[in-house]
Amino acid sequence: MTILYCDCFSGISGDMFLGALLDAGMPVELLSKQFKLLNLHEFQGVTAEKVHKGVIAATLLKLDVLHYHEEHDRHLHSRHLEGIQDLIKSSGISETVKQTSLNIFQKLAEAEAMVHGSSIEDVHFHEVGAVDSILDIVGAAVGLEYFKIASVFSSALPLGTGQVLSQHGLLPLPAPATLELIRMAQAPVTASNATVELVTPTGAAILATMATFCQPDMILNHIGIGAGKRDLEWPNVLRVLIGTQDQADGSYLEIETNIDDMNPQIYGQVMSKLFQAGALDVFFTPIFMKKNRPATRLSVIARKEDEQIICDFLLRETSTFGVRVKPFWRHEAKREMRLIETCYGQIPVKLKILDGEIIQAAPEFDACVLLAEQAGVPVVRVLQEAAAIGLEFLK
After folding, report:
1. Are residues 262 and 160 in the same domain?
2. Which of 244, 277, 301 is the last residue of a domain?
């Protein structure tokens, strides 16, 4: 599984994130082609320039767009959420890129509505609705699809101080929408003596929508360094690390909790929802707790990247006040599904493969049950025939 980590020691903006993706290897020609599919007449072109920020080489994104300076023109070309959604939905970009872009803009709209005390439908985008930010957000989604990113992670976000001039007048930094996005994501923050904007609303929206705020273990495959437009006392760059999860050590977790005060009817729904949340296995063990109370130990086997969502679910949906998490690793045989023909019909067979050799063939029980019911025979007959045919794979 490919993952991405944002090292935001100098903050993050949409153009810094895109610059980092280009620096990591995404072709600028691909980005330009995808932008043209938006049918956004303000878009003229995109280029990537190698620059130095201090002693660090980085990629600076440059968007060539038509900007509007007169008040009347700005009003005509600012956008509401519905207009941006229609623009994205009617474009020729992929469904995955569309959905990711829509999710990010939805999060932006929620933050803006909260800041201005209005509904999402009434939010009037100015800076964040400008064509630059539409391209930044869609471009971010294109990059995540290009690298086949399954999960995004991020460091803590530095909070600058000072003021910024906006369409609404002079505002404190971080900008109100940025601060609301950070709050919504429960993102960790760090102090900074910078008196400029380090985290923009667009950058915050990308992370608030996509990221988990921790540093993951990974095998590093690509490094991308995106340049910010300002020159600061330190290299004003965003580093993006792209790699694969290290499945050799601590990539799996056992998450468990002991429960003695929950209606037993709830356990079935809990198990079902845990599998929907990404659990690899869920099981219950009868135990005795204090005062000799009969209780249930609820255990979940999960991937490391699903830890937070599963722990949050257990704390929210069950009566427990805490869960335990233990990392472990496991050795796995490869598996492959094949279809076999029996006199009762087709049955999937799961093959276990070790060192390239098929060592076991197990018919799928549910399929055998269905065919047995259709034929009006005991399921053991279907199982026996399927197992006999499956032995052919072992020769």
Report:
1. no
2. 244
Distance of alpha carbon 63 from alpha carbon 43, whole angstroms? 8
Residue 117 — left, alpha, or beta (φ > 0 → left; ψ -120 to 50 → alpha)? Answer: left
- If phi > 0 it is left, if psi is from -120 to 50 it is alpha, else beta; for residue 106 that is alpha
**Edge to edge, what strands does the sheet with 219-227 contain?**
43-53, 56-65, 219-227, 237-244, 2-7, 149-154, 211-212
% of residues, the chain, pLDDT over 90: 63
Provide the domain limits for residue 289. Answer: 252-328
Q: Name the phi and psi angles at 37, rounded to 5.
A: -70, -15
Q: Identify whether the C-beta of residue 173 lies closer than 8 Å to the C-beta of residue 164.
A: yes
Q: What does the mean pLDDT of the chain come to?
A: 88
CATH number of the CATH domain containing 274 = 3.30.70.1380
The β-bridge relationship of strands 189-191 and 157-159 is: parallel
Rounded Cα gap, residues 82 and 201, in angstroms: 19
Kindly state whether residues 56 and 159 are assigned to the same domain.
Answer: yes
Residue 337, beta-bridge partner list = 350
Domain boundary among 197, 219, 244: 244
Q: What's the pTM?
A: 0.63
Find, among 353, 355, 373, the residue nearest to 365 by Cα.
373
Start-end of H helices in 60-130: 71-77, 81-89, 95-116
User: Both ends of the chain: CA-CA distance in Å?
Assistant: 33
CA distances from 179 to 81, 149, 155, 187, 252 (A): 20, 26, 16, 10, 34
In this prediction, residues 322-336 reach a mean pLDDT of 84
Amino acid in position 227? A
β-partners of residue 220 are: 243
CATH code of the domain in which 376 resides: 3.10.20.300
Same-domain status, 175 and 114: yes
pLDDT at residue 125, rounded to an integer: 66
Helices (H) and strands (E) in the chain, counts: 12, 20
Tell me the angle at which helices 95-116 and 131-146 cross, rounded to the nearest 10 degrees.
140
